[in-house]
Amino acid sequence: MLTDSDVVRLLDLVKRFVDASTIDFPAAGSSLEREVLSEDGHESFLIDVNRKGKVKPTKCTFQERYAMTDILYRLDIDGPPHTNPDGMDVPCPHLHVYRQGFADKWAFPIDPSEFTDTSNLLRTFRQFLTRCNVYDVPDIQSSLT
């Protein structure tokens, strides 16, 4: 289990994509997984984009994972509200942040100055990568279907 200080250290690391080729943003009903590495090359992360909800093409989840399974950040867009461990409901969109002892079970309302238009999935993906400290982002192309 990660400690809160581990998570702060991991989130603060500058990261870069391993594969610098163009990113094909997934169409509705599909997903994407790309590896990023810390600048010193010692830590590996995965960036996920999940658009598998075919009924609602605007539903999307962005994740930053560490050690394959530890979700450090998860941004949910156009999905259901989330109930935190303390019983508080958080409407969508919301950002899950890893917390020691709870993993990604806590979510918070997004900051609209950080995620400026969650209906624009490409812009939101770029803003999510900024939140994750990912630099030198390759070109991103999409049909957004």
Based on the model shown, name its key terms.
single chain; 145 residues; alpha+beta; eight-stranded mixed sheet; two-stranded parallel ribbon; 14% helix; globular
Mean pLDDT: 95
Counted beta strands = 12
Beginning-to-end CA distance, first to last residue: 38 Å
Strand order of the main beta sheet, please?
A: 10-9-6-5-4-3-1-11
Largest sheet: 8 strands, mixed
Can you count the helices? 2
What is the structural class?
alpha+beta
Q: What is the N-to-C order of secondary-structure elements (H for helix, E for strand)? A: HEEEEEEEEEEHEE
Low-confidence stretches: none
Write the layout of secondary structure elements.
Layout: H1 4-12, E1 15-17, E2 23-24, E3 31-38, E4 44-50, E5 60-66, E6 70-77, E7 82-83, E8 89-90, E9 94-97, E10 107-109, H2 121-131, E11 134-135, E12 140-141
Parallel strand pairs: 1-11, 2-12
Antiparallel strand pairs: 1-3, 3-4, 4-5, 5-6, 6-9, 7-8, 9-10
Structural notes for this entry:
This protein has 145 residues and is α+β, with helices and mostly antiparallel strands. Helices cover 14% and strands 34% of the residues. The protein contains 2 helices and 12 strands. The chain has an 8-stranded mixed sheet with strand order 10-9-6-5-4-3-1-11, with helices on one face.
